[in-house]
Structures are given as structure tokens and as C-alpha cells.
Design goal:
single chain; mainly alpha; 2 strands; 9 helices; 169 residues
């Protein structure tokens, strides 16, 4: 599985610099991105559950999480070198690429694919997977105002963009 930088406003070269830094951390630790991210996800799930004692992550999961967090920190530092504070706050860090066709789509392709999915689902908004979410992320990835983009995704405003051109009803 590949990794990408979630870094609004970063150039492709800056994002690549971040990915290279993260890859160096992962390689130094002798860990794959999937294994490191899995550790981080285990710790996050435990947090989401309210830290139940019988669900605590293993020592290996903690160690993997530390590698993921170090790789993400290195990626952010390398990608954002010389950036001002406000621009830097729009950078989330590393993400695993689970569905390249959806997550790496350009805006026009993402919107077209969302329209296809909605048509196939009969416009009911009953989706059986995360494709629409990932496509919405791709469609808004390069918006300058990331907080506005997040609100649009959260409030369903992309629905207007996605359904434009669909037959009524």
C-alpha cells in the first residue's frame, strides 16, 4: 500500500519531499507503512473506546504507532519547510492509500465518479462503501480554504456538485 501527504497548498515536489522523509523513517525502523499505520489505528481505536483496560493495544502496536507518528512528523517537517504557521496548520500528514482509483482522482474525475455511483445507487444516498467519501476528499483536495472544504464535505454541499446534471427525481 502506498502513502500520500494530506497537505493542502503543497506543491507536488513538497509532498514528494514529505513522502521521502516518511519513507526514510519507515525504512530505518524496518517497518512497512501498513504495519506502522495499523499500530496507530489500534491506539486511536482504544482512545475512541474510552481506554478500556481489556482492550489496550499490545507493546508491538504501541511501537508501530510510534514509528507511524515519527514518519508523519518527518513528512510534515520536510513538506512544510519554510512555511508560515497558518499554511502549516492545513497539513494533516500521512495517509495510507487504500483505494487509489478514488483517493488519487483529480477533481473532474472524482466528481464524474461520484455522479456514476449516485446514478447506480438510484440517487438515494445509500452507499455500501467509502468510495463517495474518498472521491469527495479528492474533489476538494486542492481547495485553498481547507476548513471550507471540510464543512462542504461534512454538510453535504458536494451533493449539489455531484448531482448537477442528473435527471430530477
Amino acid at each position: 500500500m502506498d502513502i500520500i501527504m494530506d497537505a493542502r497548498g503543497a506543491t507536488p515536489d513538497e509532498k514528494q519531499r514529505g513522502i521521502a522523509a516518511a519513507t526514510a523513517v519507515l525504512d530505518h525502523a524496518g517497518m512497512t507503512a501498513e504495519d506502522a499505520a495499523s499500530g496507530s489505528f489500534a491506539v486511536e481505536r482504544w482512545d475512541d473506546m474510552g481506554f478500556p483496560p481489556d482492550q489496550e493495544p499490545s507493546e508491538d502496536e504501541y511501537a508501530a504507532a510510534e514509528v507511524w507518528w515519527a514518519a508523519s512528523k518527518a513528512a510534515i517537517e520536510a513538506c512544510c519547510e519554510g512555511w508560515r504557521g497558518e499554511k502549516r496548520r492545513q497539513v494533516c500528514g500521512l495517509q495510507l492509500v487504500e483505494d487509489p482509483e478514488s483517493e488519487l482522482a483529480d477533481r473532474a474525475s472524482a466528481l464524474a465518479r461520484m455522479r456514476e455511483i449516485i446514478r447506480a445507487e438510484g440517487g438515494q444516498g445509500e452507499f455500501t462503501d467509502n468510495r463517495v467519501f474518498f472521491l469527495a476528499l479528492a474533489a476538494t483536495a486542492e481547495m485553498q480554504d481547507s476548513s471550507r472544504a471540510q464543512r462542504q464535505r461534512r454538510n453535504g454541499c458536494l451533493f449539489v456538485a455531484v448531482t448537477r446534471g442528473l435527471p430530477p427525481g
